[in-house]
């Protein structure tokens, strides 16, 4: 099982190094983003398990980052900020943050907050897996346990890659998945930038899935970004 991936969004190099050293010591994987622009790029490209977010970024206020991420993902966000007023915490939590840690903070408290967040995340994911053994969206039905896909009463015969693509999109229904994220999930790092191949496989999948591939019902293209499965 992969170790949890943490995105550290912090412009202060000293604090960023403290956090990343702590994460590395305790067997967490991590990516870093020193500003808001790179935070959005990293979050959308790598879909981290948890985001550790400083609010006082040099280019964009952290509250805006929370709102942007919440526009397409429910990934847990723990704010780490020097803003200690109750109203600052309320604004961040109302915007969609899951937790709020005030600077200065102890390493032990940071790790404890992470453990609680990850336990909650694993619990939710576990329940979803049990409840969603079969995915239904309009006429589309995916039986994950059996590895079968149906459109209405007809079983679709998909290649292994087409099936993996469809499952990835269905497990993230409503979310825009970037080209980088999809290719990494399906093929691994060696295929990170092979967008052309992804488009070919997506086109063959659509021919089998969509009644009118030129006006897709299930899979929407976000030009230059990626793909999203629509809820029908």
Automatic annotation (TrEMBL):
It is found in: Cytoplasm. CDD domains: REC_OmpR_KdpE-like, trans_reg_C. Residues 132-231 bind DNA. The modification 4-aspartylphosphate is found at residue 54. InterPro entries: CheY-like_superfamily (IPR011006), OmpR/PhoB-type_DNA-bd (IPR001867), Sig_transdc_resp-reg_C-effctor (IPR016032), Sig_transdc_resp-reg_receiver (IPR001789), WalR-like (IPR039420), WH-like_DNA-bd_sf (IPR036388). Keywords: Cytoplasm, DNA-binding, Phosphoprotein, Transcription, Transcription regulation, Two-component regulatory system. Residues 132-231 form the OmpR/PhoB-type domain. The keyword Transmembrane does not apply. GO terms for biological process: positive regulation of DNA-templated transcription. Residues 5-118 form the Response regulatory domain. It comes from the Bacteria. Its main location: cytoplasm. One of its GO terms (molecular function) is cis-regulatory region sequence-specific DNA binding. GO terms for cellular component: cytosol; protein-DNA complex. May play the central regulatory role in sporulation. It may be an element of the effector pathway responsible for the activation of sporulation genes in response to nutritional stress. Spo0A may act in concert with spo0H (a sigma factor) to control the expression of some genes that are critical to the sporulation process. This is Stage 0 sporulation protein A homolog.
């Amino acid at each position: 099982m992969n170790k949890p991936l943490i995105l550290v969004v912090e412009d202060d190099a000293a604090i960023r190094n403290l956090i990343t050293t702590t994460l590395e010591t305790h067997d967490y994987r991590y990516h870093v983003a020193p500003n808001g622009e790179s935070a959005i790029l990293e979050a959308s490209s790598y879909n981290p398990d948890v985001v550790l977010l400083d609010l006082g970024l040099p280019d964009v206020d952290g509250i805006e980052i929370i709102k942007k991420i919440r526009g397409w993902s429910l990934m847990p966000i723990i704010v780490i900020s020097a803003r200690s007023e109750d109203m600052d915490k309320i604004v961040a939590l109302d915007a969609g943050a899951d937790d709020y840690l005030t600077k200065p903070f102890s390493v032990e408290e940071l790790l404890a907050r992470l453990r609680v967040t990850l336990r909650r995340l694993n619990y939710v994911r576990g329940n979803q897996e049990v409840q969603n053994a079969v995915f239904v969206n309009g006429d589309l039905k995916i039986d994950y346990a059996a590895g079968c896909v149906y459109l209405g009463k007809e079983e679709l015969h998909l290649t292994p890659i087409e099936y993996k693509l469809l499952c990835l999109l269905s497990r993230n229904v409503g979310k825009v998945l970037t080209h980088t994220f999809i290719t990494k999930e399906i093929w691994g790092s060696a295929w990170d930038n092979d967008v052309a191949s992804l488009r070919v496989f997506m086109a063959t999948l659509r021919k089998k899935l969509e009644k009118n591939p030129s006006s897709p019902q299930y899979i929407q293209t976000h030009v230059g970004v990626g793909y999203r499965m629509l809820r029908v």
